[in-house]
Write a structure and sequence with these properties.
There is one protein chain. The chain is α+β, with helices and mostly antiparallel strands. The chain has a single domain, classed as predicted glycosyltransferase like domains (Thrombin, subunit H), CATH 2.40.10.220. The protein contains two helices and seven strands, in the order βββββββαα. It has a six-stranded antiparallel beta barrel with strand order 2-3-4-7-6-5. β2 and β3 form a beta hairpin. α1 packs across α2. The chain is elongated and about 45 Å long.
Length: 138
């Protein structure tokens, strides 16, 4: 049973499955306080330690994680759920989810309203309109 609330979010993520390997590029399916889920073309056994990097935030988010589950996915091969190994990484992942939600909001405003928002303007509007809907830390 899932312990943390997940946030659906599509963010580029690089994942290294073995030390020294060039990380593969994927997209997150969702991210939560305890970990994240993404789709990939290969099965990865539960318990395998991996390296996770999200470069679309500044500074880039890097963390060690462990595959919690792997299941077949009709469209893209497999879906993997990973949990962060460090509590600080889990907290930082929540901040990454918020930054990504703000950027999604900024793009949505541009597309639907034709307004261009700077990063700080978008953050202020998102906080005012949506921060209360963002689940609190456990």
């Amino acid at each position: 049973m899932r312990q943390f609330i997940r946030h659906a979010i599509d963010v580029p993520v690089r994942v290294g499955f073995t030390p020294g390997e060039t990380p593969g590029a994927y997209h997150t399916h969702d991210i939560g306080e305890g970990g994240l889920a993404f789709r990939c073309s290969c099965a990865v056994p539960a318990g395998r330690d991996i390296d996770v990097c999200i470069d679309s935030v500044d500074p880039p988010f890097r963390a060690q994680a462990q595959v919690a589950w792997c299941r077949p996915h009709v469209v893209s091969g497999y879906e993997l759920g990973v949990r962060f190994l460090d509590a600080e990484d889990a907290f930082r992942a929540r901040m990454v989810a918020q930054v990504c939600a703000i950027e999604d909001y900024r793009r949505s405003v541009r597309r639907t309203e034709g307004r261009e928002l700077g990063a700080e303007e978008a953050a202020a509007e998102w906080i005012e309109r949506h921060a209360a809907d963002f689940p609190p830390m456990h």
